[in-house]
Write a structure and sequence with these properties.
Strand content of chain A: 15-25%
Structural class of chain B: mainly beta
Shape of chain A: globular
Shape of chain B: globular
Mean pLDDT of chain B: 96
Distance between the termini of chain A: 74 Å
Strand content of chain B: 25-35%
Low-confidence stretches of chain A: 83-88
Largest sheet of chain B: 4 strands, antiparallel
Strand order of the largest sheet of chain B: 4-1-7-8
Order of helices and strands of chain A: EEEHEH
Largest interface: A-B, 16 and 19 residues
Helix content of chain B: under 10%
Number of strands of chain B: 11
Strand order of the largest sheet of chain A: 1-4
Number of strands of chain A: 4
Low-confidence stretches of chain B: none
Mean pLDDT of chain A: 80
Oligomer: heterodimer
Helix content of chain A: 10-25%
Structural class of chain A: alpha+beta
Chain lengths: ~90, ~180
């Protein structure tokens, strides 16, 4: 399943010792996608998102993308408030 | 570089001594690119970790080396004269038994330029070897059949490496060949 969203690069798919998650075996089918996504976000050198993965995770984590949200509100300056004179 | 306060340094109560039971070894010649020392770190928090990952030559990888529990140790000693201080790293391991694969490994590497990664029990990794200097097998203390039936049979190896600074290696260790 994970291979739909991630692609192994630079090595024959197999074992890599990672600092945070210990040894991961990329020849296995049952890897946790959340772990793999966190590795990609940390610039892990042997894994990248496929186009399908990019679409999937960018949809889940819009804050990770550099696109500007469409519903950004324009800031409209308030009109100056006129003070009443002579009442103070 | 700004100096920062040094706190107790124990995270979540974890400070278990010793190394993992597996260290990782490669030939220095099989490393394509190396992690780099921190470049002009702004403060001391950025001056303790290497930057980047090791990349291997095509077809090459790191190999595991098993060590008996509590028989692996990394000693980090400051060496050198005034204004010329550096560090000596001595990594000791013990592999039980005298398997022919072990004997063949020692025969093949005893005069080689090596790179060794030693993970400790708190998640830090120490890289012995860089582009300029290798780790070398410098001794075989405790090796042999043992003198009695209660003796310890196996091979003890010491790897020695010298470097100007001591760093944590936060990168990955490829245990499958590079393509």
């Amino acid at each position: 399943m994970w291979k739909k969203h991630f692609k192994v690069i630079g090595i024959v798919p197999g074992r890599v010792k990672t600092r945070r998650y210990g040894i991961l075996d990329f020849s296995h089918e049952d890897l946790d996608e959340n772990i793999l996504h966190s590795l990609v976000k940390e610039n892990f050198p042997y894994l990248e998102l496929t186009p399908a993965g990019n679409k999937h995770f960018n949809k889940k984590d819009p804050e990770d993308t550099e696109t500007v949200p469409e519903n950004t509100e324009k800031i409209i300056p308030s009109p100056p408030v006129k003070r009443k004179e002579g009442n103070s | 570089m700004d100096l920062l306060d040094i706190s107790k340094g124990i995270v979540d109560g974890q400070n278990l001594g010793g190394l993992h039971q597996k260290i990782y070894i490669a030939l220095q010649a099989d490393i394509l690119t190396w992690p780099t020392n921190p470049d002009a770190p702004a403060d001391t928090s950025l001056n303790g970790s290497l930057v980047g990952d090791i990349a291997m030559v095509t077809g090459k990888k790191f190999f595991e080396f098993y060590s008996t529990e509590d028989a692996a140790k990394l000693d980090i000693s400051m060496i050198g004269e005034e204004m010329g201080k550096g560090f000596e790293f001595k990594l000791s391991v013990f592999n039980p038994g005298l398997a022919t694969e072990l004997l063949g490994f020692i025969n093949a590497t005893k005069n080689e330029d090596l790179v060794v990664i030693a993970p400790d029990n708190n998640g830090q990794q120490f890289l012995l070897g860089n582009a300029l200097r290798s780790a070398k097998i410098s001794g075989s203390e405790g090796s042999g059949t043992g003198g009695t039936t209660e003796g310890r049979r196996g091979m003890g190896l010491t790897f020695t490496f010298h470097d100007g600074n001591v760093y944590d290696y936060p990168g990955a260790v490829p245990l499958t060949p590079a393509v």
